[in-house]
Amino acid sequence: MEKDSELLILRHSAAHVLAAAVLRLFPSMKIDIGPPTDGGFYYDFDGDHTFVSDDLVAIEAVMGEIIGSDLPFLRREVERSEAEKIFREAGQHYKLERLADIPDGETVSLYSLGDFVDLCRGPHLRSSGSIGAFRLLSIAGAYYRGNEANRQMQRIYGTAFRRTEELEAYVTAMDEAKRRDHRRLGKELQLFAIDNSVGQGLILWLPRGTAMRMELQQFIGKELTRQGYEQVMTPHVARLDLFRTSGHFPYYRDSQFEPIADRECLDPKLTYGELSNALEAGECNGFLLKPMNCPGHIKIFANGQKSYRDLPCRLAEFGTVYRWEQSGELSGMARVRGFTQDDAHIFCEEEQLEGEILGCISLVKKIFETLAMGEYRVRIGLRDGQSRKYIGDDALWEKAENALRRAVRTLGVKHTEEAGEAAFYGPKIDFVVKDVIGREWQLGTVQVDYNLPKRFQLSYVGADGKDHVPVMIHRAPFGSLERFCGVLIEHFAGDFPLWLAPEQVRILPVGDDFLHYGEELCATLRERDIRATVDRHGDTLGAKIRRAELFRVPFAAIVGAKEMEAKRVSLRSRIRKNVPSAMAASEFASFLEEDIRSRRLPDAFLGNGADGA
Domain spans of the chain? Predict the structure, then answer.
């Protein structure tokens, strides 16, 4: 058995111990499920008692007693009627509902741990004493079955490892992750906001965050120009029939906003449900907030006859799309309902396909190297042969899958193949990046598609004078700008490279007498496209330095009598260790320009041999 599987079994067993401990302390609580996770385990509870932090201490103590008693995990298979009787008498109605989910004819198994009985298929450890080091981490809300229309339950998270040193290392990493949490830093650094009056999962980009986002867009925009892309723009909403043709409706039906009915379809006699059913069935017309940019790009390609001499045709857009994520799954910028993709679609001849895939991969690599994300793996998402969600001919799928395999082999990095992870129209490669503290994030993607061009009846005139169907590549190196920026905030812990920093320089006048010189210096830097500000507060220099530190401004330029007389600045830097303590104002501007131009990484990242692009 693989070590990871053994660890999951240990954590699953710890989840049962957690539930047993909770019921000892709070016998009236109702229990739902308690699965293991990659980082630990959780269990969901419902009842009149609201858990607080002090409860975790008491629950941990009882868990320790159960583990110390070395109670066996006893499995037994029972008739459905017996399981119903056990959970009905215990008043555990959530277990009765989970029992009803088990298809007739399948085995019903129970696990006992002392007087605690749970509905579970297992497996578990031999006994509770085999659980190593554990710790409860937090309390959160979670909707029953992940549906926000259901009752909200209380979820207790924990983790468990074989050895204490593994647990301590994990807890240290968790503490570091909390320090870097983009939700906290985003608020502290005034990068973005989420306002419930605007809507959950909808990001308000504040001026500082917008500056960072625009730098990323300009960076990739220059690379797109070098690779021959053309920028386009498509509307945020389009006819529902467009997405019927593409297949996004109904294939992505559950993760889309509800369609918007044409006004002529509105009838006061129709209920909301009837109108929704009519839209879904195509009985009336409507619009849809776009879940994808590709149908719009397809229509742009189809605007006018194309020749093989026009291929490859590379269309790019920073296009905002909308997905209906369950509220319980929303998380800062990492999981949102409206996000902007650095999207592009390439229409090419079949013989051009592999070269274009490699061009997409080179762009992804350029981004990762520039941002010190050099450690990554590639996941090839293939069809699941048993699923009906995929469209198109088997032979074309094989061509697309093999083209991706060949391209990935040129990278020389670890890659895996995962059935069932393809898009409904074609296979894809996802780039899974490891950040500076070892966490993995799925970011860029490249997808090969023989199917949507056929569904939209796209064609170009080949060298033989006949019509041919192009192959289409979908690619997004950043993926979602919201998610990517959230990852960058945590990756750099808010101490961004100078070129990416929302505020690059803050000028700190020692007193009001030097404010005019500070303003002159600020204007000079801004003329050279350097994002500079002046701290105009009338308090002490120490207070101004602390404010600049709190906002993680890369450079603080102090100006007083000596500096004003000599046209110099005194310097402090968060990202450069050996920056001179003082510099002529003109020299300082040139120094900053070179740092920005080279996209040099902060010194903390240069020790690993990383450098700017």
Answer: 3-180, 204-492, 505-606
